[in-house]
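Re: [ENG-882] Designed sequences occasionally contain unexpected residues at chain ends

Forwarding the minimal case from QA. Structure tokens:
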């Protein structure tokens, strides 16, 4: 469901492509007010999309069917806790430098300031 449309048609297509993965089909629903109809029409034209347009209002049954809206179960979703493995003792990440990055020390040669 697109509510906040991107400015670029490529971003619209990228977001829309997430509805159909691995050969599956999907439906993209774009919500817009009549005030934005010209901008939406231009975006869809640049994206090569021929939309089916429906006038809907909040809680409209057609909107519920198109989006697959369901009554909330009331049961909260609690994602599983994934334990992270700690690094083995004695190993370091970051290329072996004790400070975790390049030293930034004297490199010899001419300074950039003198150019």
């Amino acid at each position: 469901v697109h509510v906040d449309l991107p400015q670029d048609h490529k971003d619209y297509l990228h977001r829309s492509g997430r509805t159909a993965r691995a050969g599956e089909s999907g439906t993209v629903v774009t919500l817009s007010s009549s005030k934005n109809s010209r901008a939406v029409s231009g975006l869809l034209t640049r994206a090569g999309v021929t939309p089916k347009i429906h006038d809907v209002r909040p809680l409209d049954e057609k909107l519920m069917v198109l989006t697959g809206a369901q009554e909330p179960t009331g049961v909260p979703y609690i994602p599983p806790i994934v334990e992270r493995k700690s690094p083995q003792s004695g190993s370091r990440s970051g290329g072996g430098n004790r400070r975790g990055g390049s030293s930034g020390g004297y490199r010899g040669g001419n300074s950039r300031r003198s150019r």
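QA comment: On inspection the terminal residues look reasonable. The radius of gyration is 26 Å. Proposing we downgrade this to a documentation issue.
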